[in-house]
Amino acid sequence: MSLAVAIQMDPIDVVDIDADSSFALALEAQNRGHRLFHYLPRDLTFRHHRVMARARSLSVRRKAGDHFTLGDPEIVDLQIMDVVLMRQDPPFDMSYITATHLLEHIHPRTLVVNDPAAVRNAPEKLFVTHFPDLMPPTLISSNKEEIKAFRKEHGDIIVKPLFGNGGADVFHIRPEDDNLNALLEMFTRIYREPIMVQRYIPEVRKGDKRIILVDGEPLGALNRVPPEGESRANLHVGGRAEKVGLTDREREICAAIGPTLRDQGLIFVGIDVIGDYLTEINVTSPTGLQEIGRFDGINLEGRIWDVIEARVARRRDA
């Protein structure tokens, strides 16, 4: 099966070929004989009831400094593509939401991964709230008195923007810290949305585990350990990646959310687990494929393409 695949992502020239999951997905698709096209989210156009993109043919190779070739720009009707990978990085803002609305016009005739309507309805931090038995004590509010009351109840808290990403603007406020009022003032100036406040989970010192689920099944994991003096474990802020397996509790979490992910067309998902708690469900542009592959020898991108190809085949046979 040879598929026409359009990848909606950030500029290909700046990706880290040893870490970027979109690059790994593109390379796996190319190795399977699929034809690739690349475009930026701003290249989407809705015209005459068709969703078009000013795209370029793409070839990739694992060669630092020479990892891609792009063809000349051409107008591509996304409805004649077999697959569109929606892989641009957050922030999950109105631009991101608009892209999901446009791609919803072509899905599922063209398989969009992940399902654009489900992506729109599943912001990472809000999606978790549908699984209250799995998440830590959490408050989402703009009200300062509510936030102060939550802090009084739990003492040690994490404060973060509701639609942030990559660990940006995540603060650990200890019981003796006097900066909460100033922090809330800053958040109010920068963000219009409510703030997410969670009880601090001390197990984060042992790591923030990223678990990859493919079509609702957990297939690999990576532990990210925060550096000294840092409460965030994100790799780009200095977190250390470690090989890790899954605990019984983590398998329980995956079993609880897996059917929902599968039913909503969320094929490639990365969840974050600290201690016994699910903290985020990443559906926009999950990462971790290459790191897990190096630790465990698992070709996760291949498993993702197995699912995609099977779904396209079923659609063709319908």
Explain what the structure shows.
This protein has 9 helices and 17 strands. It is α+β, with helices and mostly antiparallel strands and 318 residues long. The chain has 3 domains: 4-121, Rossmann fold (3-Layer(aba) Sandwich), CATH 3.40.50.20; 137-200, 2-Layer Sandwich (Dna Ligase, domain 1); 203-304, 2-Layer Sandwich (D-amino Acid Aminotransferase, Chain A, domain 1), CATH 3.30.470.20. The chain is globular. Strands 1, 2, 3, 4, 5, 6, 7 and 8 form an 8-stranded mixed sheet that branches. It has a 5-stranded antiparallel sheet with strand order 15-14-13-16-17. α1 crosses α9 (300-317). Helices cover 30% and strands 28% of the residues. β7, α2 (94-104) and β8 (111-113) form a beta-alpha-beta unit. Its cofactor is Mn(2+); Mg(2+). It comes from Limibacillus halophilus.
Topology:
Layout: E1 4-8, H1 21-31, E2 35-39, E3 44-47, E4 50-60, E5 68-70, E6 74-77, E7 83-86, H2 94-104, E8 111-113, H3 116-120, H4 124-127, E9 138-141, H5 144-154, E10 157-161, E11 171-173, H6 180-190, E12 195-199, E13 208-214, E14 217-225, E15 240-243, H7 248-263, E16 268-274, E17 277-282, H8 289-296, H9 300-317
Parallel strand pairs: 1-2, 1-7, 7-8
Antiparallel strand pairs: 2-4, 3-4, 4-5, 4-6, 9-12, 10-11, 10-12, 13-14, 13-16, 14-15, 16-17
Helix pairs in contact: 1-9
